[in-house]
Specification:
The complex is a heterodimer of chains A (427) and B (392). Chain A is an alpha/beta fold. Chain A is 25% helix and 21% strand. Among the domains of chain A are: 166 residues, Rossmann fold (3-Layer(aba) Sandwich), CATH 3.40.50; 58 residues, no CATH class. The longest helix of chain A is centred in the middle third of the chain and has 15 residues. Chain B contains 18 helices and two strands. The relative contact order of chain B is 0.11. Chain B has a two-stranded antiparallel ribbon with strand order 1-2. Chain B is mainly alpha-helical. Helix content of chain B is 58%, strand content 1%. Chain B has one domain. The chains are: A alpha/beta (427), B mainly alpha (392). Chains A and B meet through α6, β15, β16, α9 and α12 of A and α2 of B.
């Protein structure tokens, strides 16, 4: 099936090396950045915290702790806009003391010890490091990498497709941290019992492909696939179809098909945690969009997004919209006071001066383009009509819950009907 | 010191739901591409038909008496000019009505390009020109096919089609029937037995006391003066000139009938180009299955009635109504199925019905009626056409 082409705006960003962004004066660490059970703070106002110190956790299985990205004093526990949940949630505000004191929260291992270390201990490091799916889903990685024993994992897919049209953070990691990614892949292979490894990337990532082939080319049971993948094939199940030919039923998880798909940034974080003892307190964020100089920034989690604008001398009066986490699936945030979270793969400002008046939503012309464009073969307009009636029974019969939220239907709609967001909201 | 507050207070950011970007294709763009395609066809036909005078003052078979009455009620002008005026009138009436309705009813969406496309389709599916073999001229009210009467009918079709079948029908949610096709059938209903079901088409066999014109429900070939092929050549050639060859008339250019389908090859080239431009914004599956099933049906009919398969095939595929409707009317998004399977069934059904209507009702241009009938099945086709999603 042909997938809709979505124009990429990456020429500049994809060739710009990762730059370390200065530590914030105040870090705002949101408690609930993962998808799962909420966390409780482990610190109180006026407590002194060190870099990497665990500051919030939960006893629930499906949860992932957060750590202090800087050293300093807890000044406030209060509300801040959380783009992951699109609402205001609790966060710990930490004032930087500039001392850079480090806490050794994790017990890293050396690469030589990897094959002797038990998978459960590796999973424990990943859990303690607060690693979640950094591609956007935010599912705790230590849960994902521990599928039930009756489902042996035959395939590990490194999802290096990064189809979001403005995102380049993963692409820079592929180029600059290739060796570290191999270390991360080796950890996952150890945990899952040596599955075959497929690294799926796009032909457009010209700088990354030779690096991947150089580093992974001689690894056993490892293939580097540089395909003409479209944006929609960045979805785990759609990607598996492209690689292995099968369609995962929506009622099943990937592991039931013997496959686990991991995102590049997550694998990088795993390597950092397991071998360097570094919990997930920073990530690479693509700063791309309608700005003069797109960048890839290694930013501490908790850095206010406004800091990034200020440091890049961007006139906020000309910023019309700020999108976090990709223009197709990410959200436009109401305030730049919101901090970077583990799931902020990109910050994409759109300017007032380049703004062209949008077309208003008009009546459907029944072109049925959304139906032919849907990568999971749904009938977006029919589901939308049912939701609007509202007739949720029909919407469910049309499998509205199978929507992967890729946004392609809204993107192609000539009448600008917000199909994707309505269907996602109805799930 | 002075203007500090405005600097510190950031202005509100615009929040919208994902995706934050949209594709380049818009409703107006889809309609503009379609309009340009139709305009190209209009111009090609107008140029082709310019040397032809209508009504034909030098027609071979018209009696002096008939000619004088014809000249009294019709304007003699190039057929190409009649088409251009028809197009201008139909588009003008449609766009103006659309605009006025938009002014009058606040909730009505003014959609100029869509109205213009509709107007052009009305002009392109309105038969004009006099068949060169129209010997029994009193049998046909050919005034309706000539200026100035055709201007009135085209204006009326455009007006009724837009107001009743586009606007009123659209108010109750989904449009059921094709506006241009239904309006044409309605406006020309008084001429049912003369324009749609031309007497020569149905009372033609010797056995029925007709003029001996061959029928589709019989042997169709090109051999001899009284064959179907010769009859069709007489129908579509330039009046007063030598009859063209059957193939060149059907494929390159006909000089009577639907202006939209005058040159089959032009319609195919423009239509295929439009499909490549619009891709899945154009319901090409209907076009493909329609022509496919028309072809299969004509072979089946040849199997039943005998004759030359090529003659029947060329006629059924390339008659003006068939070729134009297959590309530009059967694919009208509003009145055709959403679902892929629905579109395929729709196209096949349309093809089968077209051939049956043309064969057994002797309604040349039966695709128009077949289209309206198939339109009525769309809600059902959309229900049964639902396909299973990914992995289910």
């Amino acid at each position: 099936m042909p997938y809709e082409h979505i124009k990429e705006v990456k020429e500049q960003a994809r060739i710009t090396p990762i730059e370390t962004f200065p530590d914030p004066k105040t870090a705002i660490v949101i408690l609930n950045q993962h998808s799962g059970k909420p966390l409780s703070p482990l610190v109180a106002v006026d407590d002194i915290v060190a870099i990497g110190q665990k500051i919030a956790d939960s006893k629930e299985r499906i949860s992932s702790p957060v750590h202090s990205p800087i050293s300093g004093k807890v000044v406030k526990i209060g509300n801040i806009y959380n783009h992951c949940l699109e609402t205001f949630t609790d966060a710990i505000f930490i004032e930087n003391d500039g001392k850079k004191t480090k806490a050794n929260a994790l017990s890293p291992i050396s690469e030589a010890e990897l094959q002797k270390t038990k998978p459960v201990d590796l999973l424990n490091i990943i859990h303690e490091a607060g690693i979640i799916g950094l591609g956007g889903a935010g599912f705790p990685t230590h849960i994902k990498l521990a599928p039930p024993a009756e489902f042996p994992i035959k395939n590990l897919v490194v999802n290096a497709t990064e189809g979001e049209p403005y995102d380049t953070a993963d692409e820079r990691l592929l180029v600059e941290k290739t060796a570290n990614l191999l270390r991360g892949v080796n950890v996952i292979k150890r945990i899952l019992g040596n599955p075959k490894v497929t690294i799926a990337t796009k032909v457009s990532k010209v700088e990354a492909i030779p690096k991947l082939q150089e580093v992974f080319g001689n690894e056993p049971d490892t293939t580097v696939v540089a395909g003409h993948f479209k944006y929609q094939q960045g979805d785990a199940s759609v990607l598996q179809k492209a690689l292995f030919g099968y369609e995962t039923p929506p009622t099943k998880r990937s592991y039931e098909m013997g496959c686990i798909v991991q995102n590049v940034a997550t694998i990088n974080a795993i390597a950092n945690a397991v071998f360097d003892g570094e919990p997930l307190i920073s990530r690479v964020v693509a700063f791309n969009g309608e700005i003069a100089q797109p960048k890839n920034l290694l930013v501490k989690i908790g850095t206010p997004i406004s800091d990034i604008f200020a440091q890049n001398n961007i006139d906020m009066n000309d910023v019309r919209q700020v999108v976090v986490g990709g223009v197709m699936m990410g959200h436009a945030i109401p305030t730049t006071e919101a901090p970077i979270t583990k799931r902020s793969s990109s910050i994409i400002p759109f300017s007032e001066s380049n703004y062209k008046k949008e077309q208003k939503q008009t009546a459907c012309i029944h072109c049925s383009k959304c139906i032919s464009a849907c990568p999971v073969k749904l009938h977006p307009i029919l589901i939308y009509n049912a939701i609007m009636k509202p007739d949720m029974e029909t919407a469910e019969k049309l499998w509205n819950k199978d929507c992967i939220g890729c946004g392609t239907c809204s993107y192609v709609c000539p009448s600008r009907i917000p199909l994707a967001s309505a269907i996602m909201a109805s799930r | 010191m002075t203007n500090n507050s405005s600097v510190e207070k950031p202005k509100d950011l615009v929040v919208s739901s994902p995706p934050q970007i949209t594709g380049t294709m818009s409703k107006t763009r889809v309609m503009t591409y379609t309009f340009v395609a139709l305009l190209i066809i209009t111009i090609i036909t107008a140029i082709m038909w310019w040397p032809v005078m209508a009504p034909p003052v030098d027609a071979l078979y018209i009696s002096e008496e008939a000619m004088s009455s014809l000249l009294a009620s019709c304007l003699v002008m190039p057929l190409g000019a009649v088409l251009l005026l028809n197009a201008l009138i139909a588009v003008g009436v449609a766009v103006l009505s659309d605009f006025l309705i938009g002014k009058a009813a606040a909730d009505s969406e003014v959609n100029t390009m869509s109205a213009a496309v509709f107007g052009l389709i009305v002009a392109l599916c309105y038969s004009i020109g006099v068949p060169s073999m129209a010997s029994g001229i009193e049998m046909m009210p050919i005034e309706a096919l000539c200026a100035p009467l055709c201007f009135i009918f085209v204006a009326l079709t455009s007006f009724i089609g837009l107001v009743v079948f586009k606007k009123l029908q659209g108010m109750k949610g989904r449009k059921l029937v094709n506006p241009a096709a239904t309006a044409k059938l309605l406006v020309l209903l008084p001429f049912l037995s003369s324009i749609f079901l031309v007497k020569e088409h149905w009372s033609s066999s010797y056995e029925l006391g007709g003029l001996g014109m061959p029928q589709l429900a019989g042997v169709v070939d090109r051999v001899g003066d009284m064959s179907f092929g010769t009859y069709i050549r007489g129908c579509y050639s330039i009046p007063g000139k030598d009859l063209g060859s059957f193939e060149s008339l059907m494929i390159l250019g006909k000089y009577h009938g639907w202006p939209g389908g005058a040159s089959s090859i032009a319609v195919i080239i423009v239509g295929v180009a439009l499909i490549f431009l619009l891709r899945n914004y154009f319901k090409w599956k209907i076009t493909a299955t329609y022509f496919g099933s028309v072809a299969v049906m004509s072979l089946i009919m040849t199997g039943i009635y005998g004759g030359d398969p090529m003659t029947r095939l060329l006629f059924e595929l390339f008659i003006g109504s068939s070729i134009f409707l297959g590309f530009f009317m059967a694919t009208d998004p509003a009145t055709t199925p959403y679902t892929r399977n629905g579109q395929i069934i729709f196209g096949i059904g349309l093809g089968i019905l077209t051939v049956i209507i043309q064969t057994y009702m002797n309604f040349f241009g039966g695709a128009l009626l077949a289209l309206v009938i198939m339109n009525l099945t769309v809600p059902l086709l959309d229900r049964i056409g639902i396909h299973k999603p990914f992995g289910r």
